[in-house]
Design goal:
This protein has 14 helices and 12 strands. Helix content is 38%, strand content 15%. It folds into 2 domains: 3-245, Type I PLP-dependent aspartate aminotransferase-like (Major domain) (Aspartate Aminotransferase, domain 2, 3-Layer(aba) Sandwich); 248-381, Aspartate Aminotransferase, domain 1, CATH 3.90.1150.10. Bound molecules: pyridoxal-5'-phosphate.
């Protein structure tokens, strides 16, 4: 089946009791068992261990990636955390993309490091550097591609090969492109991680996360961590995300087309120092971005001439775009990573990985491209 058919039909069936076409919100804590012998015969016991609405979303995520099983979480960070807790013990080592979501970096350096886990942050665009970071105790690779916010890409198949040879699990944070544009499991990764908050919800309504697994064994390990730590998705969130998923490819195609138009406009503007969008020929890894994914997504960044001061002025004066931290929604959002999303990353580390002071991140929404370009044009006039 094609992606559009799967995003509508995978994982859901009409409610057996009423025929309701939408999976109901099963707002319940516990499930009555028919008898002791038939304990768990219907699959559910207590909502920390499983909920039918959440399960429908898990089955949809599994279907979208032709995976084996998926586990949904209360947030994207809970999903990242569960993967780390499932595959890392004290004394183990993990290799992480040097540009990664700020929360992932914080989880590694401020929390898991306290429990004796070691991390090396590598330039994922350089597979030699990735291979050189492998140690005897390396158990996990976590790559993010394209990475937030620099858009740096990692060759997923290449990194998976290195991970496999090292006997490590390779998880890919695929939040930016979604399974519609990029399918890590087909590129030999063990699992995909999503913040469903972003393109799967798509409407700025919920926070949630998911881990999509290639094997049942790995899925069981991740689910065990979830059941033990309680990092579940609520049925209300699962229900909204189920609806959001149905239009994901349509939104992504339209938002990506808007992003391309904006990137081309910005690239020709004399007040713009540089524009970074994987769809542009000038993007350093345009070739990789074009081969391992079927679309470029709707995230880009640019630097206004005049650095931080000019960037701030632009963001304070722009219409239509909202100054906000989220991404992936139908509303266009504009963010200054240095003071907002990546404020927790030390200055030296930020500069090392390319999160420069004047970097303005844009999550391009579903508005008319002409209106978005006009808003940028007016704001750039003022800087
Ligand atoms: C937002 C995001 C996360 C964290 O997800 P939350 O739902 O905010 O916890 C992880 N990775 C990437 C790439 C993200 O954009």
């Amino acid at each position: 089946m094609g992606f559009r058919t799967k995003q509508i039909h995978a994982g859901v069936t009409p409610d057996p009791l009423t025929g309701s076409i939408l999976t109901p919100i099963y707002q319940t804590t516990t499930y009555v068992q028919d008898s002791v012998d038939e304990y768990l015969a219907k699959g559910f016991s207590y909502s920390r261990s499983g909920n039918p609405t959440v399960r429908a979303l898990e089955l949809k995520m599994t279907g979208l990636e032709d995976a084996t099983d998926s586990i949904c979480f209360g947030t994207g960070m809970a999903a990242v955390q569960a993967v780390m807790l499932a595959f890392l013990n004290a004394g183990d080592h993990a290799i992480i993309s040097d540009v990664a979501y700020g929360g992932t970096y914080r989880l590694c350096t401020k929390i898991l490091s306290r429990f004796g886990v070691e991390f090396t942050f590598v330039d994922g665009s350089n597979l030699d550097e990735v291979a050189a970071a492998v140690r005897d105790n390396t158990k996990l690779f976590l790559t993010e591609t394209p990475a937030n916010p620099t858009m740096k890409c990692t060759d997923i198949a290449g990194a998976s090969k290195i991970a496999r040879a090292a006997g490590a699990v390779h998880a890919v944070d695929n939040t930016f492109l979604t399974p519609y544009y990029q399918r890590p499991l087909e590129l030999d990764a063990d699992m995909s991680i999503y913040s469903t908050t972003k393109y799967m919800d798509g409407h700025n309504a919920t926070v949630g996360g998911a881990v999509v697994c290639a094997t049942q064994e790995q899925a069981d390990e991740v689910r065990f961590i979830q059941g033990s730590t309680g990092s579940i998705m609520s049925p209300q969130v699962a229900w909204l995300t189920l609806q959001g998923c149905k239009t994901m490819s349509l939104r992504l195609d339209a938002q990506s087309a808007n992003a391309m138009a904006i990137a081309e406009y910005l690239e020709s503007h004399d007040k713009v120092e540089q524009v970074c969008y994987p769809g542009l020929k000038s993007f350093a890894q345009h070739e990789l971005a074009s081969t391992q994914a079927s679309g470029y997504g709707a995230m880009l960044w640019f630097e206004v001439k005049g650095g931080l001061v000019a960037g701030k002025k632009l963001m304070d004066n722009i219409d239509v775009f909202s100054l906000a931290e989220n991404l992936g929604s139908v509303e266009s959002l504009i963010t200054h990573p240095v003071t907002m999303t990546h404020a927790a990353v030390e200055e030296a580390e930020r500069i090392r990985v390319g999160i420069i002071d004047g970097l303005v991140r844009v999550s391009v929404g579903l508005e008319d491209a002409e209106d978005l370009i006009e808003a940028l044009d007016k704001a750039l006039e003022l800087v």
